[in-house]
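Here is one chain, start to finish.
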Amino acid sequence: MAASSIQSIDVPRARARPFANVSVMGVLVAIGLIGYYAVVFAFPFYRAIWLSFHNWDFIVDPIPVGMRNYERALNDEYFWKALRVTVMFSVAEIVAGILASFLVALGISQLKSGSLQRLYLGIFYLPVVIPSIVTVLLWRFLYLPSGGAFNGLLERIGLPAQPFLNSPDQALWCIVLMVVWANLGGSAIIFFAGINEVSTDLLEAAHLDGAGLWRQTIDIIVPIMRPIFFYQIVVSVIGTVQMFEQFYLLSGPAFSTRTLAVYTYELGFKTLNLGYGAAVSILIFVLLLVATVVQFRQFLAARKD
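Its structure:
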């Protein structure tokens, strides 16, 4: 009878406090994060969608125009030129950046000394901690046609000076080189961590079978690190499409370096065509979403195989 009376007292008490084990601090942090993303992302995203169906120039009231802004974007030759430049830059930067960072990480992983590994990783990571504005201004000085460091080096080895950013054929590739250099260290650290997670037993067994570093990399390291490559590609696609200050401050002649991000800025803050600019930004979001979904589906298909 005593046990049944205790149970009859404890059960209602437990039911009366269903959230007794919930952390108050955890709830407050979650509410803060939800509020932050609602203010910084959700509301601006909703506002951009709403604005893309209107015409607004900061002066008169917004005028509903339906799908006219989207139709205008799809028939705008400047939009397609900006999309072409964006795709060219993204493909070149992603391929060169991932390949270079992986090779750097692979080379550092072959060092026997842990202190040397940390030293070289620190050296390669230094450009990552430099503010992007400082990086852009530094490389703009290096690319100067007259008195620039790169042309000075070319003249020393007997090669003709190059126009670099003043050439519509070279400007985009100059920015690609700068971005690869600036982001090399961050990607190299991620790849280095992935290489260290590869089982040494597999590598030693391959070495005993006569496989060199090249065969070990192709047959063992790369397949195991496929999720890391997938992550790097997705993050790089999103990052390259959203880059702005690199192209705005290192702009080349004509439309050689005008990406979708720069084109959206010009529409919204130079021509004050906010509705059309918002429509272009929504199209950028859709392109990024489609690219991410396609990459994710390819990754899942590759894992099944």
